[in-house]
Amino acid sequence: MFDWLRKLFRGTASTPRPSAPDDDARKTVSPPKATPSEAIPWGRWVWIEPRWPLQGRFLGYTYVDAEAGLSAKGGPESEADLAEAPSVTMRLPMEFPWRILTEEELTARGLPATPSWLSFFGPQPDPNAPWRKDPHLQGRFHERYPDDLQVMVHDGDPRRTKRAPEVCWVRILGAEPGPPRLARQPSGEPSPARDTWVYVARLTNTPHGLQDIRQGEELRFLSSAEMPFPLHVTKQYLEERGNWLINPCNKCSWDEAMDPPSTMARFRFPDMPPDAEPVTFTSFCPQCDGFQVLTRAGATDT
Ligand SMILES: [Zn+2]
Hints:
Elements lengths: L2 H9 L11 H5 L17 E4 L9 E8 L3 E8 L11 E4 L6 E3 L2 H7 L38 E6 L4 H4 L4 E12 L4 E2 L13 E7 L14 E5 L8 E3 L1 H7 L2 E4 L13 H8 L11 E5 L6 E6 L6
The protein binds zinc ion.
Zinc ion binds next to loops.
């Protein structure tokens, strides 16, 4: 394993957003808790039993504050207008017992589906967004910021750029259909077509040494079972990816790359004529000392 990769794994635990209002909370987030079934949801009326003096249980509506994260507004259950004039705001999750109100309880208390103050906090995260159904992203989201996760961000292959990739926090903005990601299984058979979502996100970290991307800029990334983190990809990489079959690294099984194949070929064969179009070539794996074989689609030996 490369030094930069070893450092990356060592350093991952404390890669908070420098600009986040409460970085301390983020420093405790590694690895992300893989307990989605226990996560307190947003957009629901909940009972919470805090361990501090409150006149009765806390009854509140959960929502996501873009800056402060998952929260609930409400008050002691005896309070008259806790739905529209909440007196207490809680930052979540907390280690207190909680449960969602039943339909009967909502009706009995005359609670609105959504309180009117919610509009102040802008659009809420979409609970049905494609990234919540991606098996390779499960358990990776920040427990207080449901669209935030860590991605391997880079300026291209570190052998070429001399700049190590960095694991950075991003906030997902949307998803787009991606290119076919042709790969080959260990048996030698081409892999079946894979889910090809490309996620659009905003970089919320300030990278330490990267030069091609800055905090606040948009990037795109892919997920894969073979990668330790979702992978930042460039527009050119996405344009070329569908035309190449990547044989997974012989040591670590990585089946994506950091540079577009045309850039990889030029780096590997600097004396190649400008109009040459290589059909197949080997390249060192970007994350270990193994190698990958890239073959142009349609030019395979199968
Ligand atoms: Zn490898």
